[in-house]
Amino acid sequence: MSELAIEREIDRSKMSISDEVAIQITGMNKWYGQFHVLRDINLTVNRGERIVIAGPSGSGKSTMIRCLNALEEHQEGQIIVDGTELTSDLKNIDKIRSEVGMCFQHFNLFPHLTILENCTLAPIWVRKTPKKEAEELAMHFLEKVKIPDQAHKYPGMLSGGQQQRVAIARSLCMKPRIMLFDEPTSALDPEMIKEVLDTMIELAEEGMTMLCVTHEMGFARQVANRVIFMADGQIVEQNEPEEFFNNPKSERTQQFLSQILGH
Amino acid sequence: MSTLTDPPKTAFRLSMLINDTRYRSLTFQALAFLALALSFVYLGNNLVENLRTAGLNINFGFLGDTAGYDISQRLVEYGNQDSHSRAALVGLLNTVLVAFLACITATVFGVIAGVLRLSNNWLVSKLMAFYVEIFRNIPVLIWIIIIFTVMTAVMPAPRAYRGDNATASMLLDAVAFTNRGVYIPMPFFENGLMPGQTLNWLVVLVVAVGSWFAARKINVWATAKQEESGVRPKTLPMVLGVWLVPFVIMMLIMGLAWEYPALKGFNFQGGIKIGGPLIALWFALSIYTGAFIAENVRAGIQAVSKGQTEAAAALGLRPGKVMNLVVLPQALRIIIPPLISQYLNITKNSSLAIAVGYADITATLGGITLNQTGRAIECVLLLMAFYLTASLLISAVMNVYNASVKLKER
Amino acid sequence: MTDQSTNSVAFVADGNIPQSPPPARETGAIKWVRANLFSSWMNGILTVAALLIIYKLLSDALPWIWNGVWTTSSLSECREVLQGKTGACFSVLSERWNQLLFGFKYPTDQYWRPTLAFVLLFVAAAPVLFFDLPRKLLAFTALYPFLAFWLIWGGTILAPIVALLGVAAAAYVFQTYGKASFAIGFFGAIAAAFAVWIIGGKLIPDGASDNALLQAVPSRDLGGFMLNMMLGVTCVSLSVPLGIALALGRQSNMPLIKWICVIFIEFVRGVPLITLLFVASVMLSYFFPPDSTVDLFLRVVIMITMFSAAYIAEVIRGGLAALPKGQYEAADSLGLDYAQAMRLIILPQALKISIPGIVNVAVGLFKDTTLVSVISMFDLVGMIRGPILASTEWSGVYWELLGAAAVLFFIVCYGISQYSQWLERRLATDHR
What we know:
The complex is a heterotrimer of chains A (263), B (410) and C (432). By secondary structure, chain A is of the alpha/beta class. Chain A has helices at residues 61-68, 90-99, 115-125, 131-144, 160-172, 190-205, 217-223, 241-246, 251-261, and strands at 21-32, 35-46, 50-54, 76-81, 84-85, 100-103, 178-182, 209-213, 226-231, 234-239. Chain A has one domain (21-262): P-loop containing nucleotide triphosphate hydrolases (Rossmann fold). Chain A has 9 helices and 10 strands. In chain A, the strands form 2 sheets. In chain A, strands 6-7-8-3-9-10 form a 6-stranded mixed β-sheet, sandwiched between helices. Chain B has 410 residues and is mainly alpha-helical. Chain B has a domain at 84-185 and 260-405: MetI-like (MetI-like fold), CATH 1.10.3720.10. Chain B has helices at 16-19, 21-54, 84-117, 122-136, 140-154, 197-229, 236-254, 276-303, 306-314, 319-349, 361-373, 376-405, and strands at 176-178, 181-184, 186-189, 256-259, 262-264, 267-269, 272-275. In chain B, a hairpin with a 2-residue loop joins strand 1 (176-178) and strand 2 (181-184). Chain B is globular and about 95 Å long. Chain C is mainly alpha-helical and 432 residues long. Chain C contains 16 helices and 1 strand. The radius of gyration of chain C is 29 Å and the shape is flat. The A-B interface holds A 69, 71, 90, 94, 97-98, 100-102, 104, 106, 108-112, 121-122, 124-133, 153-154, 156-157, 167, 170-171, 174 and B 226-231, 305, 307-308, 310-318, 321, 325-326, 329-330, 333, 407-410. Strand 10 of chain A pairs antiparallel with strand 1 of chain C. Chain A: Residues 23-257 form the ABC transporter domain. Chain A: Belongs to the ABC transporter superfamily. Chain A: Keywords: ATP-binding, Nucleotide-binding, Transport. Chain A: It holds the Pfam family ABC_tran.
């Protein structure tokens, strides 16, 4: 767990938070068998917010954001994403999934498709975009994550950091309004972490609504507008990063922060 | 002080044959070659000696002699006055026939069972596990015999179909299941375009190939359309049309008719007879190998990590598309190599035909011909040569496939 | 910061929300049934279809087994007892059980011998199969082949003793000279064994078997499930060392040796076992010295061993390939020679990885031993198809006999494959 210094100046001109609600979670509970993994989660995310979710492993962070695009189903409570309520209705799930992008810890690129095909797959089959348009779009985003020259290679030929950037570009090709990051840098070497974080910062600078589960506290401090601390399946504390890091209120937060930053 | 000169030339010593890396491997290979040659000489010597005592020689001339036995299940014309080589050909084609049929049905069984075993329906997946375990752990020979005995013991004899109060009746008046085999109607053409039924079937084949190309064209067109406009046109009706319309027209023009099997005397005449041994062997090989294929299919699908499905779902792809575009292309790379080696096993196991009297190449060349002529060495050698060729062909196909789908990694 | 939104209120949880049980509709039998059997329309249909199939199977099989008759002495008597009801005629099993197990020629009063050999097999196999058992038990494993041979075939005890002495001499020579040079030790051991065997063979008097403690039983009198077990156990244990040698040969960088092994392996894997059995039954005797008689059992063992050795070699080759290259390099850099590197570093690891694969080959081979019935040996299947179904009392009792054969094979094969899975799980944790 490192606090990577982010050297560049962050351009905050477009980072505005509107009053429009992007995600609203009320009273969400989830069980794995008898185990109560998520306990009474209440959270409202406005458009343009950049939220970092931290917490010890097994605290339910990943489970929570995976509930937001129905990769996991919740058993109680209400989740409204972009004005659509997440129920077992397939139409709603489809709608939400095409609006919400997600990046995984292990990238999950499709190894049998080239980088370009990875990026155009969903636009072509879900958005019904003509192939040429989809490819232009993909190249645009690949340029943005700075790997346009790898477009015709296969994922296995790229480094971890490059793969994760492709995964971000792949999500962006669906033009999502919300991005979920599930520990995007945990599987990476330090120098690769930086390139992925840079990409994420650029995304934040453009005003994307982001929910990140991450241990990168430097990113949390400088990019997030809110940090949420979870433990034992519940939200223990949330605050602006400044306050969160300098003046944590709850004992568990203090303990966690001293472990993660205290050396 | 001595100045540096050329390194001293070591004289060749005998121990260098063992200790010097330059000679060591040569020594070993020479020894191995010597041992191999000596054992060949020894075995060859014994063979010559034994053959002389028995008054035999190695000679393939017997293949031209009259076979003198009948084969009921055959794909080409054959009578008992034909030669042994003709009998072997009949057997060879029968091997190919049963192996081909069994490969298709085993794949169907295996894919269904493998997919259902992964189903989230507890009962169905347990039932499929039961099927797989039962069939994998009992010898295929026992299955072949069980199915053959059941067929002959449970199915009615042809005479059960006779008389006013027959105890058995034909399915739809067209198919008769008897203990000698299954009789199905045979299609033929009343006013074919060509002289001879075989040629007419060739015409049908040509039309089918044409339809196949047309269907592919439609697919290509649909892909192009999708690339252009983004929406893939519905191809199913067109593909169906392209397959069915020419076929139906063809059949109408040529006057498709069916020759039904009918009871004449003590047996059925007409139609196509699929002999009991063929059915038993075909079914047993399919269901036995199907259990192995099911395991391969299951392993292949499971090997595609959950992350792949999740990533595809997170992009908004529907489950069917996730399967088609992401899971299957990856799973097939894992499934197909063991699948092909299962095909190899089917081909080899089809030699168990001899246990139920199906006239495959082992039963003709390695069975009756061998026993009649006493040409053990020649027959077994020919038999091995045939299976070896078949295996090498199938492995060659597998290698080509493996090379073509290898995942590109650094 | 100007961009902070209004709703980023600081929040601290009041306390711990306790773990609470899931809502009732999410637990219990109903939830289980809904999730596992009727989660969708399609699933519901599948469940009903599966239930129908199970009902059909059970409703046919259960009454048949339940009404089974065990005590009559022929099929016609069975039919009388059953009087038209569905029911099995298991009497054939109770009457012919010994024949199914031992064949129809093995002396009846000697059945205890193969039975004892079978029981001891478990003792001998245990230390090989379960690594936790004391290693000293392996001594019995080494002794077992000779003991089993003597028990099953009987005759003079001198024969297995000479065989054992030969092996002991080989082991001694290898221990003494093998340290200096593997090759000298290895070939010396082979020479010593043969020397003992030849001299010992001459020393055994001709009539030694006539009045032996255990009555001699010729190979052709062996049969039944015993024959399957014997072929399976013998051929698998012989083919493991041969398979290792072939696998190492195939990896060798000496072209001649490599190609000999490749051709052998690919040839054997390319032909069906049945053709190899034909070789054993009609062709192999031409290759032995003219006046020797090698009995069919031995010829079959030779061919099946070659067959399974080729498959085991491929499994072991996979194990060798799976070892990281660093292991070879580390062994070389320690100054070990080829034999030492293989024996101490490479093979122990490669074999461990290969065990599940070898067990699979063993199961396949054990099932394939039924093929010997095709070359008229009376193994379990041969007994059923031959003497028993041909007898006047029992002709027509297919289901019961074939079912019993299927059950016997299933028990053994399923047992072995469960063992293999257990081992695989265990090895998987060992290696982390």
